[in-house]
Specification:
Length: 224
């Protein structure tokens, strides 16, 4: 089989237990999609591969994504300087698990079966609980207020859910989440400096967090 055919075959085999959970495959099995009970969220499992595949090495990278239909609309209406696709959260399965790195699995030869089993196990154990949490909006908001995006002991915090918290949570909850990230990431001084620069309409440098710091400042979230 060609590397592409092996990859697609693997995607569809991995999909089997998740179809039973309500996920629907698309893009030849490269995406598994499930709509939340309230029809507002979309839970997705994506499988990526590599342009460097060969008969000896066929890579597969599993990722998860949560997007929100009404959040996308709100972000656009408010002209907020953040993603406009309604993104709530995304991550690679490696960063949700003890692997703790961006990892690919090999599907070539004898690696095929154990790689599929490992990926299914990881997704069931570490991705599905996150999807389940977001099925209950209030539970998700309460969790993020207290723990940020640390959905388990292996997951590092991020500010990806800040637009979601501002849209559906109370301002105080969004503020607590913002400060949870600041303290867990030890970036308080950098963010305080950024706030001071924003007061003067200066350019800030907070790396990947730039748009979220600007959003927090525009929404008058306090740094504690």
């Amino acid at each position: 089989m060609k590397p592409r055919d092996i990859f697609i075959k693997a995607c569809n085999e991995i999909a089997i237990p998740f179809i039973a959970m309500g996920f629907k495959p698309s893009k030849n099995g490269q995406c598994l999609k499930k709509i939340s009970k309230d029809k507002n969220l979309t839970f997705e499992i994506w499988f990526r591969s590599s342009v460097y595949n060969s008969s000896c090495n066929v890579a597969i990278y599993p990722l998860i994504t949560i997007t929100c239909k009404n959040l996308k609309k709100w972000v656009q209406e408010e002209n907020l300087n953040v993603n406009d696709d309604g993104l709530v959260y995304h991550n690679h399965i490696g960063y949700l698990s003890p692997i703790n790195q961006y990892q690919s699995w090999d599907l070539a030869g004898l690696s095929y079966a154990p790689s599929i089993k490992t990926i299914i196990d990881l997704l069931e154990k570490y991705a599905c609980p996150i999807f389940d949490l977001f099925e209950n909006r209030q539970m998700a908001i309460d969790f993020i207020t207290q723990h940020g995006c640390c959905f388990n002991q292996y997951t590092k915090d991020s500010l990806l859910a800040l637009p979601y918290m501002l849209r559906y949570g109370e301002k105080e909850q969004a503020e607590n989440y913002f400060n949870h990230y600041i303290h867990s990431s030890k970036c308080r001084n950098r963010f305080v400096k950024a706030y001071s620069q924003l007061e003067k309409n200066d350019v800030i440098d907070c790396g990947l967090d730039n748009r979220f710091v600007i959003l927090a400042y525009s929404q008058k979230l306090k740094i504690k």
